[in-house]
Amino acid sequence: xxxxxxxxxxxxxxxxxxxxxxxxxxxxxxxxxxxxxxxxxxxxxxxxxxxxxxxxxxxxxxxxxxxxxxxxxxxxxxxxxxxxxxxxxxxxxxxxxxxxxxxxxxxxxxxxxxxxxxxxxxxxxxxxxxxxxxxxxxxxxxxxxxxxxxxxxxxxxxxxxxxxxxxxxxxxxxxxxxxxxxxxxxxxxxxxxxxxxxxxxxxxxxxxxxxxxxxxxxxxxxxxxxxxxxxxxxxxxxxxxxxxxxxxxxxxxxxxxxxxxxxxxxxxxxxxxxxxxxxxxxxxxxxxxxxxxxxxxxxxxxxxxxxxxxxxxxxxxxxxxxxxxxxxxxxxxxxxxxxxxxxxxxxxxxxxxxxxxxx
Length: 359
Prior knowledge:
Blueprint: E1 5-8, E2 18-28, E3 39-45, H1 49-61, H2 67-77, E4 83-90, H3 94-105, H4 124-138, H5 141-155, H6 158-168, H7 171-181, H8 184-198, H9 201-215, H10 220-232, H11 235-245, H12 248-262, H13 265-275, H14 278-293, H15 295-309, H16 312-328, H17 331-358
Antiparallel strand pairs: 1-2, 2-3, 2-4
């Protein structure tokens, strides 16, 4: 029997690496008369084909769990053995081409993947088994902690982040992610997982610390603002936001969520501390000036304000919302809010007084 060859190819393509020339083969079911349907497995090896067949049979006898092992056990129970057919020598990638050829021709292959090194395009049954295995592993706290630590350590490496970013930018990857996130059950599962994470104070603190650490990096804030601005000014994003905001269910849900959040004293305290800082007021003023300085943004803003305030229903709704928020405040918080409102109106009153004096 022929064996695969290991050859040294010192050229520009391989960079002088040790390259393997594989012997490709097919396992045939002796019970099938059709020459295509009889092909049940395609593989490659660098050892003698008889030895490779013996390895397959040994795996099946040792109660292997793959489709190939179960098929071979069926044959062994009938005192049959598969017929090994030599497909010829080939290089890296030829196995995938053989598998693709037989699958397109109608062969019922027991291969779990499309061939090559690693799990390339595994079968749905294989993916299901992996998911079940991962769920079982994550159900054990010690195993979950170890796996999470390993995943975070891998994601912290620059080469891992670069490879992942490059993969996410590929059109086929983006199309696949978009199709996945378009499924309602995926969205609901992601929302439930996010709510569960944010309900844990320790997890919320960890996420907040990670975000602060990222924004503390040189240029991170500017890059993040530029990214958000580019996303929010895109026509598709604006159309999606307007469509969502026009939905009564979304409005009601958003209002209920805000009222529930402001009912918590810690949220009100954090909000008051954040909006009362000099940096926040400066950022808000700059953002407002930039918005009103752009004719398009100014026109859109004026139209939105007119639309929101026109009619008794809008005014009544705003009044009811203000009363609901006001009812949640303690007497001390109400006094502080009144003081801030008076202090904020003082410059406007002074300007009006000066204008009246000059006239």
